[in-house]
Amino acid sequence: MQAHALRLVAALLIAPPALAQNNPPDGGQPASLTIAGIGAGAVREPYRGVGTKARVLPLLIYENDWVSVALPTVDVKLGSTGPVSWRLRTRLGFDGYKAKDSDFLRGMERRKESLWLGGAAIWDSELGELSLEAVGDALGNSKGRIFSLQYEKRLDFGDLAVTPRVGLRGVDKKYVDYYFGVRAPEATALRPVYVGDSATQTEVGLRLTYATGTNEMLFADVSGMKLGRPVENSPLVERRYQASVFAGWLYRF
């Protein structure tokens, strides 16, 4: 599931990195912000027969008063109510698999990636950042919906910033049934029919950023997510969790 690695990338880029905190000499905020870089990491997959996958990904963020681009996520800013900012969000998802991904998945129909569309609210305060997201499958592959709530708190120690986070992620029945269910024509003696149900997933993570110069920084992110019992009970799944580690370099233009 490449999606997990990309969610970490989006979380890193959407959250204001150390470089974004540097104000121009006149004390005002820049009209726009562009940051690019490269990252690499590994994701421990939950599907049977699919092991740890290494990823190398280009990173890009562009932000101004109207949009926030953190590929594969694009936000249109809708304004703010006090400390809460509202956004229209679209994200390219990479959930899914092909039958050739493992011997155990042979005979399964492909579960396709999709485009997710919805809204987000971000509350930023001295106590930390609380974000809420609700998106649905805009292409109708799973017809599912995802809801997520995440809290993180950035702690600065000079050039080093440490940001722990905790989150809840709700995936509805259609999502679980599409990506983790087994249909009757796909069933075997070792892979019985399975109808998914909605699941609540929990995630903890830690992000480290270190400014190596005025326009450069290094980052590392580790994360683990418990998949929720309706996903864990799927015959396609051999692990109750998904874990990842990601690191890279960013440069502000």
Task: Give a written overview of the molecule.
- It is a single chain.
- With 253 residues, the chain is mainly β.
- The protein has one domain (2-252): Porin (Beta Barrel).
- It is 10% helix and 50% strand.
- The chain is built from three helices and 13 strands.
- It has helices spanning 2-14, 173-180, 229-232, and strands at residues 33-44, 52-63, 67-70, 73-81, 84-92, 115-125, 128-137, 145-152, 155-157, 160-171, 199-211, 216-226, 241-252.
- A twelve-stranded antiparallel barrel has the order 1-2-3-4-5-6-7-8-10-11-12-13.
- Strand 7 and strand 8 form a beta hairpin.
Low-pLDDT windows of residues? none
Element order: H for helix, E for strand: HEEEEEEEEEEHEEHE
Q: Give the CATH H-level superfamily.
A: monomeric porin ompg
Question: In CATH terms, what is the fold-level topology?
Answer: Porin
Count of DSSP strands? 13
Shape label: globular
Task: Bin the helical content.
Answer: under 10%
> Structural class, please?
mainly beta
Q: Can you tell me the number of structural domains?
A: 1
CATH level 1 name: Mainly Beta
Q: What about the largest sheet?
A: 12 strands, antiparallel, barrel
N-to-C span: 31 Å
Q: How many distinct helices?
A: 3
Radius of gyration: 19 Å
What CATH architecture do you see? Answer: Beta Barrel
